[in-house]
Amino acid sequence: EDVPSQTFDNKDYSCGKETFPVYESIFTEEGETIRKIAIEIEKPPQIEIHVWTIRRGILRHLYIEKLSKKEFEGLPYFKLITRTTLSQWKIFHEGEAQINRMCESRVCRTELEDLVKVLYLEKSEKGHC
């Protein structure tokens, strides 16, 4: 009998939920840190990049750009950091909007770090589906 094979890429330890690759790029330019978090979405096939400009720990600017996979492949400095579900990405996106409002005038370094951690799936969920 045919048994469907499990693929590590897509449904590894997220209880059969579809997961998507998340990439990160961080670089410093003229005293500002530019941090980019990107997710590869299948439908429509595109990359959504969230760009944070941080100066002295304060989130100065946040914007989102969308690229085709081909355009994204030509960009340097991105590394795969995890895979996440669309529900986790939604939590990230909503948290990002809250932090953007909250951190216009104060340092939010730890809040930004905690927000990125939302994207990492808990491996312990495997046995609790």
UniProtKB/TrEMBL annotation:
Residue intervals of the Chordin-like protein 1/2 C-terminal domain: 10-129
One of the GO biological process terms: negative regulation of BMP signaling pathway
Key words of the record: Developmental protein, Glycoprotein, Repeat, Secreted, Signal
Domain of life: Eukaryota
Compartments reported by the entry: Secreted
Annotated GO CC locations: extracellular space
One annotated GO molecular function: BMP binding
Protein name: CRDL1 protein
Native species: Toxostoma redivivum
Source organism phylogeny: Eukaryota, Metazoa, Chordata, Craniata, Vertebrata
